[in-house]
Amino acid sequence: MRVLGIETSCDETGVAVVSSDRGVLHLEGQALHSQVQMHEAYGGVVPELASRDHVRRVLPLLNVALAQAQVTVDALDAVAFTRGPGLAGALLVGAATACAIAAALDKPMLPVHHLEGHLLSPFLSADPPQFPFVALLVSGGHTQLMAVRAIGNYELLGETIDDAAGEAFDKSAKLLGLGYPGGPALAALATQGDASAFKLPRPLMQGLRQGNLDFSFAGLKTAVLTHAQRCARTPDAPDRWRADLAAATQLAIVEVLVAKARAAIEQSGLRRLVVAGGVGANRLLRAHLDTACRQMKAPVHYPELDLCTDNGSMIAAAAVLRADAGIDVPRADYRFDVAPRWPLTQRSVAPADQA
Ligand code: KG4
Ligand code: ZN
Fold first, then answer.
1. pLDDT (0 to 100) of residue 83
2. Tens digits of residue pLDDT in 203-237
3. Rounded to an integer, what distance in angstroms lies between the CA atom of residue 288 and that of residue 248?
4. Which of 8, 247, 257, 323 is most buried, most CB within 10 Å of its CB?
């Protein structure tokens, strides 16, 4: 089947065409517009501006994705869109657009969970994973460890009790005077720094022995703030304190993520790791996970770098995989809603239903 995917949950408008052939996914065309520059002046995403920009971008991007795929809309079998979680107004743009296109073409629609899109995005890579696996979902809004036994079979093993890993990167970057979103900028600055120059907390690490796979990053942000304020007040602090603090922050986040992912593999007995979400693009995280997984003899899979952050391809891919697995039947009643808060575990179906 060939599916159009539309992603508008936050500050990226993504449109893509994905098809499947005997269980193998093909990314036929994709187009993306990032609103980062527009929101930069405000230091974060302005929901109303995000919605309006999605309205402006989505149809021109549709034309680019179709042209790249060398198909017309008639070749589509279904239209998928991000139903949630995300910003309500932004989600409504994608959902309404998908509904209008589907209705005009008399084709069915498929609502997709944004995090399931991230989770399944490595299936678009040249080396797709096999089930079962542990998934480390690290995005701007979520940090979760899941046991994934099949498509639509998701068990939450642990999650953040406060900030997400991406949020920890972004908020620390802001404290260091870097732009928005700060993750990539902090990672770039960190390459020039010495991580051992600052001692930062590794929250909830002590709970590992009791099997606690939850995360907490709010304390780290406070520690970064305290160090940054002290350095700014100290005239003889070495010039490189910003780079050193960036390196120490990145290392603290990475070490916690790797330790918990490692424990999740050990506790669940699932000897394969899949990493997804924007922070999955982080080089230090990839290097540390590669080492840990090599030691554990557990293969590790990442999405292609350009598919780590939000995009339409992962939404189309998740829709195709769910439809091919018989979990979702695309609907043609042309009614839609959005779900700004939507736990991924609600997308889990009982194994008996998956036959
Ligand atoms: O998955 P995503 O696009 O957003 C959500 O669905 O929430 O991820 C965006 C997050 C931002 O917090 C961004 O700073 C972070 O991913 N990010 C990175 C890197 N690239 C993106 N964080 C650290 N290192 C990177 N290279
Ligand atoms: Zn995302």
1. 98
2. 888 788 889 999 999 999 999 999 999 999 988 77
3. 15
4. 8
